[in-house]
Amino acid sequence: MKIGRNEKCWCNSGKKFKHCHYGRESEQAITKGELIGQSKNIRSRKCCYVPKALQHECDRRIVNAHTVSKSGSLIEIADSTNHVYGLKINLANIFKNKGKLVPEKIGVNQASTFKGFCSKHDKQLFSCIEDHPFNATEEQCLALMFRSVAKELYAKEGSLLSSEVIKSGDKGKQLADQLSIQKFAADNQLGIKAALRELSDFKDQLDGQLLGNFTNNLSHLIFESSRSMPVAVSSIVSPVSDFNGTIIQDLGDLNVVAEQIVFNSFSSDGKGYVVFSWLTKSAIILGFVNTLIAIDKAGIFGALIRLFFGLAENSFISPEWWDGLPDAQKKKIESLIMSGVNPFKFDPKGLLIDDGVNFSGWNIDNIRKINF
């Protein structure tokens, strides 16, 4: 490869070659400590995801906002030391566990938090679900959605920043390795940027709903129980397959605009709820939801477990429920957590279908449909 010192660098950074990859193989390789430090800085950045029209009202204090209610849900399922099981997804922990994601004890003060709202708007937007029993009001369902989408935007923006850190991992390496690392990072960024565009468009819809610009563009499915839900979740995903194992959208094609569904599992006033929410116009998601409703009530909890751990990372488990599971069920959940980590072993068709591993500990008393 022959590039003039003053030409644009081959890695598409926009910098001149002499200020970018010239002599890269002789540079000091980035250390594990530096990688962990940069990762920590990315996870600690502060912002407020309130709609732009309200940003002038922000105060200066960014809080550790809970995506799953601490006062109701997390404390409801925590053990006597106020801990729940969850995934600690950070670079230091990934190094420690040799790339494996395993449920570990997390204090309820740290579980599900991110620095995504100022103190004023965290209180203003989510008081309806933090300070009041859940009654499936339009305001409460919208608040659940808004918080899940904000957390996912925060995570995806962090992933984009992390991909820039990955690019620095070619320091001290020969050209072939530099090319490989830069190609991997560039391909990764294409997917992240596509997801960010889709999430931003989704949030624009919620911003409009929050500001009262339009209504009745959201649909909700609610499972209710007289028992607390042992797994608390807050997530938004673009499912590839439904509960029958049918492929419903191809996320490998970046020209496809993915449709998304938000789901929240939580406890409130001693009762358990799972709330699915989506844009009413999303025909693919409506079909996805219908394959879940079609499952016999006794099998829905197992289907939810496959969904929670197969597609969501922001999940938290009751230690009492987890410790009481047979080994086969624990292994199933651990395999679900690792699904998709290795794309060569990932089977999207089989992810959500019943494979005979049953789960108990929560029953559905009522199913409510709103606006569909």
Helix content: 25-40%
Total strands: the figure is: 10
Structural class: alpha+beta
How many distinct helices?
Answer: 10
Overall pLDDT score: 92
C-alpha Rg, in Å?
22 Å
Question: Which series of helices and strands comes N to C?
Answer: HEHEHEEHHHEEEEHHEHHE
Strand arrangement across the biggest beta sheet = 3-2-9-6-7-8-5-10
Cα shape: globular
How much strand content do the residues show?
15-25%
Poorly predicted runs are none
Biggest β-sheet description: 8 strands, antiparallel
Distance between the termini: 59 Å
If you had to describe this structure to a student in words, what would you say it looks like?
With 372 residues, the chain is an alpha+beta fold. It has a domain at 218-370. Helices cover 40% and strands 16% of the residues. The chain is built from 10 helices and 10 strands. The strands form 2 sheets. The protein has an 8-stranded antiparallel sheet, sandwiched between helices. Strands 1-4 form a two-stranded antiparallel sheet. A hairpin with a 2-residue loop joins strand 7 and strand 8 (271-279). Helix 1 runs antiparallel to helix 5, helix 4 crosses helix 5 (138-167) and helix 8 packs across helix 10 (327-338). The chain is globular. The mean pLDDT is 92.
